[in-house]
Amino acid sequence: MKTVWSMAVMMAVAGCSGQKPAPAAPPPREIDVVSLAPREVRDTGEYLGSLLSRQSVTVLPQVGGYVRRIHVRPGQQVETGTPLVEVDAREDTAALDSAQAQLSSTKVNLELSRRTLARTEALNKEGLASAQELEAARAQVEAADAASRSSAAQVTQRQVQLQFNVVRAPFAGTVGDVLVRLGDFVNATTPLTSVAQADVLEVSVSVPSSRARSLKPDTAVEILDAKGKVLLTSTVFFVAPQADPRTQLVEVKAAFRNTGGLRPNEMVRARMVYSVRDALQIPALAVVRQSGQPFALVVQEKDGKTAVERRPITLGALGEMAYVVEKGLEAGDLVAISSMQALRDGTPVKVKAAPRAEASAGGTPFGSSR
Description:
The chain folds into four domains: 29-39 and 279-358, Beta Barrel (conserved putative lor/sdh protein from methanococcus maripaludis s2 fold), CATH 2.40.420.20; 45-55 and 197-277, Elongation Factor Tu (Ef-tu), domain 3 (Beta Barrel); 62-88 and 165-191, CATH 2.40.50.100; 89-163, Orthogonal Bundle (Helix Hairpins), CATH 1.10.287. It has helices spanning 2-17, 90-125, 131-163, 209-212, and strands at residues 29-31, 33-35, 39-59, 65-70, 77-78, 83-87, 166-168, 173-175, 185-186, 193-208, 220-224, 230-239, 249-257, 267-283, 287-290, 293-302, 305-312, 314-318, 322-327, 334-336, 349-351, 357-358. β11 and β12 form a beta hairpin. By secondary structure, the chain is an alpha+beta fold. The protein has a six-stranded antiparallel beta barrel with strand order 3-10-13-12-11-14. Strands 7-6-4-9 form a four-stranded antiparallel sheet, with no helix packed on it. The chain has a three-stranded mixed sheet with strand order 20-2-22, with no helix packed on it.
């Protein structure tokens, strides 16, 4: 009876006080984290580059005449000396025949003059020919010899001239569009076709003068495809000594062996790698901002409890889904990458048991994000 009375008294006292039991603290929120570690960071700039052939020429004839034969077709691969276009050579052939006939005539005259000189010398010894006749015979031989050498030079000249009627490839390469047709009249200023060598190409890029100051001979240049994938890599070999006065851009060139099927005069994406260094990177989704100031939520152990600390940071360039961290974080810091909207400074958290992943060079964290 006393026990029942005591319980009734206690319930009455509790009801009169109006106090409720304190609610239990919520369990720590489970979050994903990323462990920061120094990674390679590249200072780059992407520009539009133009591909140039290191050997490219417009083929012109060296003689005038009508096109009699075309030996190649556009896009054909040719070797050095391959005939391209043949110009009418009948006039030059006739001139060569005439020069050869003249050479034969002068050789006959030279032989006759030498025989006459030999007879004159024999008669002079017997006193039957005067010294004047001997000198005249010698002069005749010299004149005939000079005429023979002149005729031989004419033949050589005509032979060389005749070779110009067949226009040949100056080097191995690819034939461009053939600009003439059979029967067309051409002269020394008429473009016939072009030959370009695409095995080795140059990429020409115009960069801001402020960035050109940091270029070195071993600065890397990357040729990218439409999706940003690196096709070819080379190094700078030429930096223009002066900037364009109108655009304030500096021309930079790099040469590379064309293993990607690129073509001269093609426009490509070119990326200049100005510098490479190691730095911390934080995923972009792990950055929270307040009044323009970026913060990171760093997991800390304090008084036996695990909580997040909002830490101001200084960010550098944005890479592929990650920022370079200039100040505010250190290697090994654990940064929250999930439940960002629900976390506040001092919020108790529990790191998920999944392996923590380090921020990759591309800035893509492992683990889930929310």
